[in-house]
């Protein structure tokens, strides 16, 4: 389906700020912001080190940035439904209620591609089978809380491409998104949260059993993989022992920087090519870590969480994004798009009254 880009007139909710934690809860929609032009807003621009910070934190702009990236990637990048932008979009965009058509259009585009592929003899490619099915399932769990018939069909098909050792087909890019642990985590989470008890079906039980075996034989080595596995373990048992879980939590705590954020280069013990020597927080590592710790049971008023949320509120860019440079280059914004989703998930996970 050719995606029609409409002018974005978002009616996103604003996030109220709460003393102590910095976040309280998602409020009713505030007055609509002025729409921006298609050329200046929809066509995503690479993040540069000189891009100014926002004068005031805005969840509205965060949602618009996610819409912008997904819509523009589809229009300007050869109709490619990418894991770092369009697929990850469904992990958290619906957490911000909106009347804007962007989410609906992107969802319909994915459904159309999945339906067309499942009806053909070619079926879905291995990686696409995993990424598409898991995105639909997570989105269903946030929006309708009902398992869409196409989602179930896609999930059932996903298990047919699972490898004998339990590995889920994933990849097509570099770390951290291209990591096998990223794909395994998304699979575990998506199946667990899929509505109407999908995880209890025969196909899911068999597939999850193989996936547990894969996690056991392939422990995470990098911190970005450990954070992902910690997230998965909050939804599916048999992935981490209590001792392993506690160890990862403390390791992630130890990687927090003086500025309150976390840095992706330190998560893989590598430096960004063309980057500065000074290590500073970024949206991907900070958003993922805060969310993973919260999913693991770390309270929202924990000092590490409070400092992480403060970093996120203080470092949003004027475009609504959070700075994250891809590990392979100095200005690429591929990881920024996924980072924005993790940030929204982290903020939502801490949207509770101060204690």
* CATH fold descriptor: Glycosyltransferase
Low-confidence stretches: 1-43
Tell me about the biggest sheet?
A: none
Shape category: globular
Helix-strand string? HHHHHHHHHHHHHH
**Average pLDDT rating:** 82
- State Rg: 19 Å
Helix/strand structural class: mainly alpha
N- and C-termini, Cα separation = 48 Å
Indicate the proportion of strand residues: under 5%
**What's the total count of β strands?**
0
Helix content: 40-55%
The CATH C-level name is Mainly Alpha
The appropriate CATH architecture is Alpha/alpha barrel
Count of all domains: 1
Output the number of helix runs. Answer: 14
Topology diagram in text:
Elements: H1 38-42, H2 59-76, H3 83-87, H4 102-119, H5 126-142, H6 149-159, H7 180-193, H8 202-217, H9 223-233, H10 242-254, H11 264-267, H12 283-295, H13 303-314, H14 334-349
Commentary on this structure:
The protein is mainly alpha-helical and 355 residues long. It has one domain (38-349): Glycosyltransferase (Alpha/alpha barrel), CATH 1.50.10.20. The chain has helices at residues 38-42, 59-76, 83-87, 102-119, 126-142, 149-159, 180-193, 202-217, 223-233, 242-254, 264-267, 283-295, 303-314, 334-349. Helix 9 (223-233) runs parallel beside helix 12. The chain is globular. Residues 1-43 have low confidence and may be disordered.
Features of this protein?
14 helices; Glycosyltransferase; mainly alpha; disordered N terminus; 355 residues
């Amino acid at each position: 389906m050719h995606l029609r880009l409409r002018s974005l007139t978002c009616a996103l909710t604003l996030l109220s700020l709460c003393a102590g934690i910095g976040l309280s809860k998602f409020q009713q929609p505030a007055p609509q912001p002025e729409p921006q032009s298609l050329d200046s807003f929809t066509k995503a621009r690479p993040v540069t080190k000189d891009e100014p910070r926002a004068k005031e934190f805005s969840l509205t702009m965060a949602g618009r940035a996610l819409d912008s990236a997904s819509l523009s990637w589809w229009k300007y990048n050869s109709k490619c439904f990418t894991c770092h932008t369009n697929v990850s979009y469904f992990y958290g965009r619906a957490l911000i209620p909106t009347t804007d058509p962007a989410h609906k259009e992107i969802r319909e585009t994915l459904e159309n591609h999945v339906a067309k592929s499942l009806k053909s003899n070619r079926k879905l490619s291995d990686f696409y089978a995993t990424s598409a099915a898991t995105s639909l399932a997570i989105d269903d769990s946030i929006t309708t809380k009902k398992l869409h018939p196409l989602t179930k069909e896609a999930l059932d098909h996903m298990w047919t491409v699972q490898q004998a050792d339990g590995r889920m087909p994933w990849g097509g890019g570099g770390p951290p998104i291209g990591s096998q642990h990223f794909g395994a985590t998304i699979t575990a989470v998506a199946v667990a949260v899929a509505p109407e008890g999908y995880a209890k079906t025969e196909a899911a039980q068999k597939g999850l059993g193989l996936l547990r075996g894969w996690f056991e034989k392939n422990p995470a080595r990098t911190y970005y993989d450990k954070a992902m596995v910690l997230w998965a373990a909050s939804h599916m048992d048999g992935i981490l022992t209590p001792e392993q879980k506690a160890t990862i939590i403390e390791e992630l705590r130890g990687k927090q920087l003086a500025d309150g954020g976390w840095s992706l280069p330190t998560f893989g013990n590598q430096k960004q090519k063309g980057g500065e020597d000074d290590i500073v927080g970024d949206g991907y590592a900070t958003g993922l870590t805060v969310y993973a710790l919260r999913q693991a049971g770390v309270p929202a008023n924990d000092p590490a969480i409070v400092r992480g949320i403060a970093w996120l509120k203080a470092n949003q860019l004027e475009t609504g994004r959070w700075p994250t440079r891809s590990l392979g280059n100095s200005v690429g914004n591929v990881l920024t798009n996924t980072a924005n989703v993790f940030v929204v998930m982290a903020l939502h996970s801490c949207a509770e009254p101060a204690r």
